[in-house]
């Protein structure tokens, strides 16, 4: 049967033009991290978004396409596959730039990824390498978004720990992270049972809440600082100089739903903090702590106080629940009942949220914008906070950021 003139029955399907850089990146994902279809796809599409869009793949490469390329490399023993997988730890330092790129992408997207290798394996490899590669770009700081699965420390964290052990007497200034590594916004939950002073306008750590004169971490020894941290990490009832905050709003919301008692969710602008800020995960690793179900991931500790100027928004969990009940779009977005059904904020909860999550579109943006407007978040912060909610609630990346932000604006 002849086709009508002018009709094209053989429209080419857009395909990615795989290059060496992309193949090496994909091999490093498979070699150094536990396979996770959604996370691998999101990381790859973010890093190579310009290249894949040039190929006509507006929504990025599908997992099926990525998996097909991976299997082809394995089957035909591609050069890139041999370089990474057959000689992975003999040349471990060679892949640090790619691992650093993965690390920062995971943090930026608010994802979680589980490393395959234990620190013992990494240290053994470091000892075998006598001559460091001068062109290696080592990771700058540890990533609080990464997951230490199965009690294993993330591979690059162990590498950095090796470096730090060469300087056994750290100064007080080494306890903090550089400003460009600190998240712009942090989130906190508190209720009437929380240590210290906790209000919508001020937080005071338990150690300083009884009128005791405040002092800075530089005024105490490293041993005393470590003792304070260990007590805080073990949730001892003794007063702590630290105030716990989180990089994701999901964790405070989850805890508030389980520990209501007048619970408040606060959003904190780290640029307005006037005291020191520490990564809990860094200190966990430094002290080699082992607490079941917790390793400091995603938590930052503020020293002493959080002033009113740094608290850009504070809302009761009961208000958030009321908004979810009254506005269908907000309720569908937050899935509060689903969050409350999980005792722990871990992978099972994240997967459960992802199954009911919306897309990267105007509808999701509108729901988030309406929520942020309803809790009185100033509009100037809406872009960063809305993107944080998008990642924390595991929304699907089908759509565009442009339409998403249009929705956020409309919600205000």
Describe this structure in words.
Pfam families: DUF7587. The protein has 18 helices and 9 strands. The protein is mainly alpha-helical and 412 residues long. It has 3 domains: 20-165, no CATH class; 172-315, no CATH class; 327-411, no CATH class. A 3-stranded antiparallel β-sheet has the order 1-5-9. Strands 2-3-8 form a 3-stranded antiparallel β-sheet, with no helix packed on it. A 3-stranded antiparallel β-sheet has the order 4-7-6. It starts with 19 loop residues before the first helix and ends with a helix.
Oligomer state of the chains in this structure: single chain
By secondary-structure content and strand pairing, the structural class works out as mainly alpha
For the sheet with most strands, the description reads: 3 strands, antiparallel
For the record, the count of structural domains works out to: 3
Average the pLDDT over all residues and give the rounded result.
80
The number of distinct helices, counting runs of at least 4 residues, comes to 18
Question: Compute the gyration radius: what is it?
Answer: 23 Å
- What portion of residues belong to β-strands? 5-15%
N-to-C series of helices and strands: HHHHHHHHEEEHEHEEHEEEHHHHHHH
Shape: globular
Instruction: Compute the separation of the termini in Å.
Output: 56 Å
Number of strands: 9
Feature tags:
412 residues, mainly alpha, 3-stranded antiparallel sheet, globular
In short:
With 412 residues, this protein is mainly alpha-helical. The protein has helices spanning 20-32, 37-47, 49-54, 63-75, 79-85, 96-109, 119-128, 155-165, 222-233, 250-258, 280-287, 317-326, 328-334, 336-340, 347-355, 362-374, 382-392, 401-411; strands spanning 185-190, 197-198, 203-204, 242-246, 264-269, 277-279, 299-303, 305-306, 311-316.
């Amino acid at each position: 049967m002849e086709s009508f003139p002018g009709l094209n029955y053989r429209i080419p399907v857009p395909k990615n033009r795989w290059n060496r850089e992309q193949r090496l990146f994909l091999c490093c994902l498979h070699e150094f991290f536990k396979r996770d279809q959604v996370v691998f796809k999101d990381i790859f599409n973010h890093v190579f978004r310009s290249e894949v869009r040039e190929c006509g793949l507006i929504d990025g490469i599908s997992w099926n396409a990525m998996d097909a390329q991976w299997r082809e490399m394995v089957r035909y023993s591609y050069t890139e596959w041999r370089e990474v997988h057959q000689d992975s730890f003999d040349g471990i330092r060679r892949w640090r730039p790619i691992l650093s790129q993965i690390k920062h992408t995971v943090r930026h997207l608010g994802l979680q990824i589980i490393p395959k290798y234990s620190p013992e394996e990494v240290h053994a490899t470091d000892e075998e390498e006598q001559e460091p590669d001068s062109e290696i770009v080592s990771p700058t700081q540890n990533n609080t978004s990464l997951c230490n699965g199965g009690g294993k420390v993330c591979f690059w964290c162990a590498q950095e720990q090796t470096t730090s052990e060469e300087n056994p007497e750290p100064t007080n200034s080494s306890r903090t992270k550089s400003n460009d590594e600190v998240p712009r916004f942090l989130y906190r939950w508190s209720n009437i049972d929380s240590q210290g002073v906790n209000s919508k306008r001020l937080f005071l750590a338990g150690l300083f809440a009884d009128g005791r004169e405040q002092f800075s971490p530089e005024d105490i020894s490293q041993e005393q600082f470590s003792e304070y941290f260990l007590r805080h990490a073990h949730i001892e009832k003794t007063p702590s100089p630290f105030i716990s905050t989180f990089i994701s709003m999901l964790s405070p919301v989850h805890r508030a739903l389980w520990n209501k008692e007048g619970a408040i969710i606060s959003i904190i602008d780290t640029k307005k903090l006037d005291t020191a800020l520490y990564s809990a995960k860094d200190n966990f690793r430094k002290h080699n702590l082992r607490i079941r179900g917790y390793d400091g991931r995603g938590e930052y500790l503020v020293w002493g106080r959080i002033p009113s100027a740094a608290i850009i928004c504070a809302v009761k969990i009961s208000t958030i629940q009321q908004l979810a009940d009254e506005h269908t779009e907000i309720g569908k977005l937050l899935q509060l009942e689903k969050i409350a059904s999980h005792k722990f904020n871990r992978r099972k909860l994240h997967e459960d949220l992802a199954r009911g999550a919306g897309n990267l579109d105007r509808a999701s943006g509108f729901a988030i914008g309406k929520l942020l407007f309803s809790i009185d978040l100033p509009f100037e912060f809406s872009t960063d906070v809305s993107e944080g909610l998008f990642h924390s609630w595991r929304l699907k990346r089908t759509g565009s950021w442009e339409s998403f932000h249009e929705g956020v604006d409309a919600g205000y």
